[in-house]
Amino acid sequence: MSRHGARMSLLAAALVAVPGAASAGPDDWHGGASLHYEASYVHRTSAAAVAPTAGAGVGRAGLRLRGFASRTLPVGYLVGIDLHAGTTNPGGFAYQADLYLAGLGVRLGKRGIAGLGAGVGASGAVGTQDDGVELPVEAFVELGVGSRLRLLARGRAVWLGAARGRADGAPTFAFTDEVDGTLAVRIGRRYRDYGFPSGNGYFVGVAYREAEGAQFVGAVLGYSVDVGSR
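^ that's the sequence the OP posted. Answer follows.
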């Protein structure tokens, strides 16, 4: 299988998970999917008001997968998964895993996709951060600019359970416990493999986080693939 065929097969797996997409023929559904491999590090830029012992930073690497589909409309049911692992500074094994089970995704013509999703997950760091159950809500947009550039933006608000030390930890957004987001630019190429518009490339950008009463700023870099319906 060619590398383009491998990318298409992997992204098709995201669409199969969407109710109704698997039973539709290739010309019947509308939707899209994106896969991000990424690594990020954010460093604390403000004092921790809630947890003075909060670490100086956290670095993680992993993947984000989103897919949505609909039989008749450009707006479809969205599902996704996040899997990340890394370390805090000072050291402590850190992890974050979320499953997005309810959401909506939309095609922005042939230029991009956007979505809003909610899910459940868990995160923490051994010895430095309380383990907690996550209830995340995420919004994202990917938009092509010309033939080689693509803007990638996402923001996430998280409500936590079983992690009292991390409660009310977003100083700017008092309605939630934690927030994080990224804004990046991807440089790559566009294709029409098997008749489907798709693209891939490497991206770099800025990352932001609020947790445990502190603000963190850093960088994100990675590789992403996207595919849309005909």
